[in-house]
Specification:
Helix content is about 45%, strand content about 15%. The chain has about 400 residues and is α/β, with parallel strands linked by helices. Helix 15 (about 350-360) packs across helix 16 (about 370-390). It binds nicotinamide-adenine-dinucleotide and magnesium ion (MG).
Length: about 400
Amino acid sequence: MASVRNIAVLGATGSIGGSALDVIARHPERLRVSVLAAGSQVDALVALCVVHRPEHAVIAEQRYYGTLRDGLKMAGLATKPHAGAEALDELAASDACDTVVAAIVGAAGLSSTLAAARAGKRLLLANKEALVLAGELLMSAARGADAEIIPIDSEHNAIFQCLRSRQTQGDVRRILLTASGGPFRGRSRDSLAAVTPAQAVAHPKWSMGPKISVDSATLMNKGLELIEAHHLFAVPGEKLGVLVHPQSLVHSLVEFVDGSTLAQLGLPDMRTSLAVGLGWPQRIESGVAGLDLLAHGRLDFEAPDLQAFPCLRLAWQALEAGGTAPAVLNAANEIAVSAFLQGRIGFLAIPALVEDALAALPAAPADTLDALLAADAQARSITEHAVTGHALSA
Ligand code: NAD
Ligand code: MG
């Protein structure tokens, strides 16, 4: 059977990182952690190194280099310490790994994800913001280097599995992404004005990092996922749809021209997607139990409420507009979500700020990374300034 996979887990201290490490540790005979990377949680990174004994550990934030080096030494580990974004990119592209779990949150993950794609790695892609910001470049880098992208986002992982029964692109009539609806499903727009960060991150079905949890509450997450699906599966916006499914057991559906619809089902646990990515084309144990449909009883579906959750509409528009629009959408959203989590703005300011950024920076063609990064930087700056105009009175 296949040789041992050497895996770099980027974003190791996060929610996806932890799930990936859980699956990897179940298969010591075929999966090995060779690189662990985190943003600034240096103590958590050292603790993970003690358990997984990688060859390399990277802390993105330079000022923690000494803490990382000393922590590894004190633990008696041979793990080599590194710091900074460049070291991260170099290791993601190096011979130290053949597989990269891209699980950094936000546009901060783009550079290392691109580096892994350009180096032809198997790329387990959770970092959806990288695709929203630079989907065409990332996909073409992967094609050029024969990098195999396996989507980890549960919807896209479901679609990836369903598409295995397709012969040609023309076989697909429609792709439907399911959405849990988040913690505020069924609420009116007005009733959302006073919701708190704690309420927004309390997702009913999934346990995730704070940023994606807020994105799920605004439905921006589903909007980002539409753009993600467009790039991953080369489908135009009009072939994509969203179905709210509160039980989160059907992870997405693909409808074929003959009227067949295939769906992938399972408990809401990201270890299933990660096991697909780590084992593919073989199926490996993930630690996730099977689905007992009798115990769950029912599967409900409803249309998304675009009045209460305008972020989904804004993302559709950005997808249609193309060029720099998705980059602007993503950057404005990252700034707005961070301000909301810090208690600086209210929940409804998130769509307002994103809408204003899209209006201020109309879509321009963008075929270079520099153009996209410039749009990203402009949108961040505009939105950061606009946050003060939406500031909650203390
Ligand atoms: P998280 O906040 O739990 O973890 C983020 C990780 O990224 C941490 O390890 C952090 O140290 C690292 N990080 C942050 N900034 C960094 C930087 N500048 N450089 C290097 N590392 C940095 O987030 P998460 O929930 O695990 O989500 C990670 C990604 O996966 C996101 O793009 C998210 O949209 C996507 N995703 C997550 C889930 C989920 O269930 N959590 C599901 C689908 C997709
Ligand atoms: Mg998802």
